[in-house]
Amino acid sequence: MSASPSMPAVVLAPGTTREKILDKVAGLVLHRPVNLIWLAALTMAAGGGAVLTLSIAYLFYQGTGVWGINQPVAWGFAISNYVFWVAIAMGGTFISSGLLLARQHWRTSINRFAETMTLLAALNAGLYPALHLGSPWVFYYLFPYPNSMALWPQFRSPLIWDVVAIGLYLSVSVSLWYVGLIPDLAMLRDRATDRRRKLIFGFFALGWRGSSRHWKRYQVTYLLLAGLTVPVVFSVHSVTAADFATTLLPWWHETILPPYFIAGAVFSGVAMAVLLAIPMRAIYGLHDYITDAHLNAAGKLILTGGLLVTYTYGAEVWASWYGGDLYEWFQTKSYFAGPYAWCWWVAVVCNGIVPQLLWFPRVRRNSFLMCVICIDILIGMWTERFMILVPVLQKGHLPSLWGFYIPTLIDWSTFIGTIGFFAFGFLLFLRYLPILSSSELMELSHVTDAGRHLPTEFSPAHAG
Amino acid sequence: LTKSSLQLPADDVAFRAALSAEFPEEAAVWDDAVSRRNFLRLMGASLALAGLAGCGRSAPPAEIVPAVKDSPETQPGRPTFFSSTMPFNGFGRGVLVVSREGRPIKIEGNPDHPASLGGTDVFMQASVLDLYDPDRSKSATEAGLSAPISKLHAGLSARLSRLPGGRGLALLTRNVTSPTVTGQLAQIRKKFPGAKWHVHDPMTDTAQAFVDPVDAVYDLTRASVIVSLDCDFLFAEQGSLRYARQFSDARRVRQDMPTMNRLYVAESTLTMTGSVADHRIPLDPAGILEFVEALANALGVETPAASPTPGEPARRWASMIADDLHRAGSGTTLVMPGLWQPPRVHALAHAVNRKLGNIGKTVNFIDPVAAQGAASLAELVTDLRAGSVDTLLILDGNPVYDAPPDSGFAEALAALTRKTSDGDYTALTAHLGTHANETTFACRWHVPMAHWLESWGDARAFDGTASLTQPLVAPLYDGVTIAEFLDGVLGHPPRGGLAILREYWKQRVHGDFDAWWLKTLQDGVVAGTTSKPRPMPELSPLPSVAASPAPAHSVIFRPDPSIWMGEFANNPWLQELPKPFTKLTWDNAIGIGIGLAKSLGNNGEVLKDGDELRITIDGQTLAGPAILLPGQAENVVLLSMGYGREQGGSLLIEDGQTRGYNANTLRTTAHRWSAAISKIEATGKTTTLATAQNHHAMAVEAGVPGIEPFLKPDVVAKLGMSVEELSLSNRKLIRAVTLQQYQADTHFMDKLAPDEKPPLLSLFKELPRSADLQWGMVIDTTACIGCNACVIACQAENNIPVVGKSEVINQREMHWIRIDSYFDGSVEAPEVYHQPVPCMHCEDAPCEVVCPVGATTHSPEGLNEMTYNRCVGTRFCSNNCPYKVRRFNFLLYSDYQKDNRSLQYNPDVSVRNRGVMEKCTYCVQRIDRTRIQMQREVVQLRELAAAATTNAERQRLNALADETGKQVVDHLETACQQSCPTRAITFGNIADPRAAVSKAKAEPANYTLLRNLTTKPRTSYLARVTNPSSTWAEGHSA
């Protein structure tokens, strides 16, 4: 099967030759002087990472009581931020694997950093469940390890599914990211001039020589991994939703939650990817590789996600009214007018109304507006996670134990710290690893440049 | 190896050589002088010695002889019960003290004692913690420096020999009911005729309604209509535990006994008694007086003196109640005046009782239980000012704190204690007390007083019954009892409380004293000491009351329901106990009604909980946070005593300030329980109150349609919703019927919750449950008076930590059982409902399926169990618990290393670490002990049956085994159940149809919370049954 002839031309700017791609990708890593802005940003991000480390140290020293959680609201920031970061991670995977399987060539220029984003976000997400344990020193009880007491985890609990899902997700994401990097690492090894880099890149390139056999194996592995990642990513977010959906609480006990969470994840994840891509493109001069066509396509994806999320809001409200359950409807009313009504309205405005601008192609191709909309979506989706969690717990079945949740300084510093950690990792990636996948871009450029088609087995889109 | 291993024990050289050849790595073990085994043995021994060294305090100072065998009292691992007597307001309350390995750890009521009947209150339950209070006085001090008590006694006797006839010696005590101490006081006055004895007790009003001093004792079992005139007889009166039991026994409506008494309450602030009333009239103090006049008029009682004409509403209520009293018949009603009511109310109430033929039936008069003949505090102050007191001994109590400021006692005492210019004391002042409190610091000497759990002593109950106090442990510090101290004053060499006590009773017991002594100690009651009723004395002539204009606002002073008059202020359990109705902890607040909150708010705003109020009475001012009280009489302000203390423990001070306000500063000798307010205003400041239910919007339509639910206005504001919207939260948690409805229709429950769906069919197979024992609980909401005894009992039994004020504000209190308060009807006069909520032990427990590590699981006997060691603290179970009964150790709350209060811990219950979830276990440790006992006894009988020769014998023994097993289980009680003064909680084996719990569950009033969720709770409730008068509603609407 061949790619749509018009597609590649839209994706890469004309005149993007193989040499140009290689020079650009390798040059960014090998021949760029240390940038002061980068250094400043890295320092700030490292500061954020330090805040995270200190927050965690304090948390472990004192206990989860340093957070604002309490008796009715036993889960707070830790879980809502977990969902937030998992969703971001999932968006990256959706770009790198989902679009690969869907043969969307435009993903090529953005998949590398989207995968990196996935990895860092998933690390953040994976951190939270461990932090939120009251007794983190026995975290390993959550794993099915053989022990003399013959005790196993309780497999009916969605939290165990969560442990399995996030573990699997992290390992698959790392594999996908690393396997995709290998040809580029080899390319860097070959182009590096100093012995130190040659050795480092050479070590991680795993002896890649670019032989046909290598390429063949590479393509099969990459596609298999991508094929594996897509169901895993759906399972991860469905399982996250199951943490809520399997409970007895009104607005949690609902079958709509898994698709709702997945739609939300695509929505916020793609928004995050776009938000990272636009400044990166401007700073590193990647306009030839990440074109407005990318923004256009991503904008459509975001719009789709936004519509799905908005639909879910409506569906939940409608179902709670139509279901006739007193408590469900009471909870709905609390959403509209309760103490946390602000979350509901922020979510509706940020996720439901503002993204409607993306119907306009001019908006989708305007990088400034796209940035603003993506920030709006990230705020909206972060608030939505808080909204799913706290107002439901805050008003349980017995009014005698209604409560209130106010995040503490440590709640905030932990969250800000994870942002710092994410930025730190991403900045290191920008400096020390190829931010575009040169091998995949070159495949595209074959089509763009000379109108020649690659031999079938070389094209990821054609393999399998 | 050729030799037999039988040679191993012998120290055979050849064997050892062969062994070391065979197992060279073992050689060292066998040759080494300090083998691993020996090392462990030595280590064990030294640890045991270290443990023994730690027990140094428990050995008496006399010559001791080691027991060859353990004494039968200390059986390791098993609790031993000792009957004893706890003094409270000077009166005795019979208790059973649970001792474990020589340490008292829990207090239960003594079923044989008339003032307990097996029930307890929060003070009895929490008193055990005071024993281990690290802030207790540890040694005698003179001017703040440690000094031997012998020096004080030497100084005393020197003085007494100098003073002619003891002139200049003054003793100040609280109420004295102890026969021994009464005897000693008589001896002192005989030996030192010039000495004077004064009594000051913050709970006693000296004003009397009768010419002769008497105490009134009530019998509620015979009363079918009860009228309480601000009498909180379920909690605050001396006999309240007995009254509570009698009252609720007469209200236990069951299918086979569908009758109950009726209670009318007129009171100024909502009390526990008012909360269970069938009709409650909120009245200010003047209104109560008016009401009782009207009642007397309506019944044709001649009022003792000219009195103002009662107003119209009072007359209407009074005539309706009078009709009801008449209908009930002679001698079957009861009118009870509250102890804070003026003599006039007492006089009128008893005149009404006499008119209704209640004297000798429901009301008995006895000679005063407290020792008589003491002078008052005012006389002491006069003597102090006159300089006629040279030596003042204050025996227990804290008069510097709790004497009204206008008495001038504090200043007079300070003047007496003051040093002369050459740095010496002229007078001798001494204070005996468990803590170095405000009074201590005004005295020259302080002597630590032994806690009652360390003391030999005796006391009389409210009805005169005497009982003995026996120590469970040797004094932890250098504490002495009042009797021991007075013995020293009498010039005896130190001889211990036991000798004093025995000497006293030996003179009064005929026959075999040792047998009597043993039996009395075992029973916990001195047989035959209950006071005989005497005829009702004449009413004292009462001054006529001029019709004075009622004050715009009046204040009432009441003991705090948690820390009483301040004596329990350093008890962390009681400080953190959510007070009834307000659920306030760690503070007192100024209670106001909604009307006052509206009128006092600045700029038309309604005052919120925590807004500061300033109250002025005759130039004295007091400021404190307001708290809104439902059912408060209009224009009445409630001040709670016991707070605002400066000395006497680390819990009294918070951030360098005293905890709460000191209501004593507004009290006067003339107006001890109520006073007119000169000025009340909001200051505009606001503080955060640590309430365990501020988040609790109480919106319940309790089966009475058409009544608007009551909500605290601040809650409504906080939720940003209208009352109507909030009423959607109605979950039929509280169900109530009238007696009429109950009698008319057995299906009344279906009408109460018509929209409740029948339980859904389960897709899952029922889990197999072991057939023999299935635990379940029923809580009777009619019987519950909301007294909190179960909350503290649970805390004591289950080692529940105290989290502190800031953590209560963070909504992290740890109580395993809580009492939810619900209000229905108008804010001014709401219906009040108490609902104790322990773990429901759901058969299909939602917490269990969500735990990722299986730390909470179901036992075959239907218990929902927590395995603390397995818990990783995800808190998922708490989220999924619809009843929110799970409690999480967010921080390290049980710091068992720092505080010697940890000595109170129940060794049968794990102390939970940080990061672990916990909750009610149905007292699984008690269940286990019972099961073991049952199995042991049943197995023995079964073995006998198996060995029986005839079939008939075998059958008889098997039947006996079954019956024995059931009886053992019938005796099992959870801590909450055991503590309950009204027996509102029933617990047992629901698989046994004849068990009390099974019968309760078969009652038509039985219901479970949130049945629609199909969790199948094992804890169920009996709907509240009330007995309103049929004429009341008509009279009201007329």
Brief descriptors of the model:
heterodimer; A: 464 residues; mainly alpha; 0% strand; disordered C terminus; B: 1038 residues; alpha/beta; seven-stranded mixed β-sheet; four-stranded parallel β-sheet; 32 helices; 41 strands
Structure description:
The complex is a heterodimer of chains A (464) and B (1038). By secondary structure, chain A is mainly alpha-helical. In chain A, 70% of the residues lie in helices and 0% in strands. Chain B is of the alpha/beta class. Helices cover 29% and strands 18% of the residues of chain B. Chain B is built from 32 helices and 41 strands. Chain B has a 7-stranded mixed β-sheet with strand order 5-4-16-15-14-6-7, with helices on both faces. A 4-stranded parallel β-sheet of chain B has the order 11-10-9-12. Chain B has a 4-stranded mixed β-sheet with strand order 21-23-22-28. The N and C termini of chain B lie far apart (109 Å). Chains A and B meet through helix 6 and helix 11 of A and strand 32, helix 26, helix 27 and strand 36 of B.
Helices and strands in order, then pairings?
The complex is a heterodimer of chains A (464) and B (1038).
Chain A lengths: L5 H6 L6 H13 L5 H27 L14 H25 L6 H24 L26 H34 L3 H10 L7 H34 L11 H28 L7 H31 L3 H12 L3 H13 L7 H4 L2 H28 L14 H24 L5 H13 L14
Chain B lengths: L12 H10 L1 H8 L4 H19 L25 E9 L2 E10 L2 E7 L12 H10 L9 E2 L2 E2 L2 H14 L6 E5 L5 H13 L4 E4 L15 E4 L6 E5 L10 H10 L12 E6 L4 H4 L3 E4 L2 H14 L13 H17 L4 E5 L5 H13 L7 E4 L10 H10 L4 E5 L3 H4 L6 H9 L10 E6 L11 E4 L8 E4 L5 E4 L12 H8 L6 H11 L6 H11 L30 E5 L13 H4 L8 E2 L4 E3 L1 H7 L10 E7 L2 E9 L7 E5 L12 E2 L2 E2 L15 E3 L2 E8 L3 E2 L21 H7 L3 H4 L9 E3 H6 L3 H5 L22 E6 L8 H9 L7 H5 L8 E8 L4 E8 L8 H5 L5 E3 L5 E3 L9 H5 L6 E2 L28 E2 L5 H24 L3 H20 L4 H5 L5 E5 L6 H6 L4 E2 L11 E4 L1 E3 L3 H8 L1
Parallel strand pairs in B: 6-7, 6-14, 9-10, 9-12, 10-11, 14-15, 15-16, 19-24, 21-23, 30-41, 31-40
Antiparallel strand pairs in B: 1-2, 2-3, 4-5, 4-16, 8-13, 17-18, 19-27, 20-29, 22-23, 22-28, 25-26, 31-38, 32-33, 34-35, 36-37, 39-40
Helix pairs in contact in B: 1-2, 4-24, 6-15, 9-10, 9-11, 12-14, 28-29
